[in-house]
Design brief:
outer membrane lipoprotein receptor (LolB), chain A, 12-stranded mixed β-sheet
């Protein structure tokens, strides 16, 4: 099996986690945040009800597709925070089909899962990594990627029970109110999970996620990661070939490396 640079392997192995929000944290040590004032956490029943309604809408879909726009903070070589922008396309067919394609400022990445094999593909250099995977999307996300899943709350939207995934170890849930996102009236929630403060804006009528922002507390002064959701389609027919990589001539296989949380990559690897 071909060996390539560690930064390339990390970029490939972290591809699923980066694909929706494009998350990259620089390898330079994070600046320690000042001790935070004591926060009184509450769980507002309105926030939990909105989250439950959204989760039930997503869980009821046998298949779905969605497109995202992402803004991701990253430490530059001078330790100044800069923003990377990108997009992702997602196709999900329960219980055992998943495709994610990332594009934009970061290394392009494609993720294929067909109920047997998880394949990560970097199309520019034609590198791919494969690993045997469990029989469902849920098990693949939790068992193959393990603790990395907990650091990225929007990945829970792909689970068969998003509400259970989103509320595991939930510390607080605040109902902020209504906002207009891309012309859509939404309900704005602010939540706290271990290591991350995150907000979600849910369509007031269609109950679909419109925007997620996440601030990872162990990254010190890092600005929030922003993910906007567009073009939701629930119940589309998705060809089976969508979930399998058709390898190009000359494609090179590399080792799969299990990602931790959060995913770390050097500035060079992130571009």
């Amino acid at each position: 099996m071909l060996r390539v640079s560690s930064s390339t392997i990390r970029a490939a192995a972290g591809g699923l986690l980066c694909a929706i929000a494009g998350v990259v944290a620089a390898e330079q040590p994070a600046h320690s945040a000042a001790p935070a004032a004591s926060v009184q956490l509450i769980k507002d029943a309105r926030a939990l009800a909105a989250l439950k309604s959204m989760s039930e809408r997503l869980a009821s879909a046998r298949s779905l597709t969605v497109r995202t726009d992402n803004t991701v903070p990253m430490l530059g070589p001078n330790l100044q925070w800069i923003s990377l922008v990108g997009t992702a396309r997602v196709a999900l067919e329960r219980p055992n089909g998943l495709f994610i394609a990332r594009a934009g400022d970061q290394t392009p990445m494609e993720i294929y899962y067909d109920g047997k094999t998880l394949t990560l593909h970097e199309p520019v250099e034609r590198l791919y990594a494969e690993v045997s995977a469990p029989a469902t999307v849920d098990a693949t996300l939790t068992e193959v990627f393990g603790p990395a899943l907990a650091g990225f709350p929007y990945l829970a939207l792909l689970m068969s029970d998003p509400f259970a995934a989103l509320t595991t170890d939930l510390g607080g849930a605040l109902y902020v109110g209504h906002s207009m996102i891309d012309g859509v009236k939404t309900e704005h929630l602010a939540l706290r999970s271990p290591g991350v403060d995150w907000e979600i804006w849910i369509g007031a009528e269609d109950r679909l996620p419109r925007l997620v922002q996440a601030k990872y507390l162990d990254l010190g002064k890092a600005p929030a990661i922003t993910t906007r959701f567009h073009d939701w389609s629930l119940g589309p027919q998705i060809p089976a070939a969508t979930f399998r990589l058709e390898k190009a001539a000359g494609a090179k296989q590399i080792d799969y490396v299990r990602a931790g949380a959060p995913v770390a990559a050097s500035p060079k690897a992130g571009k």
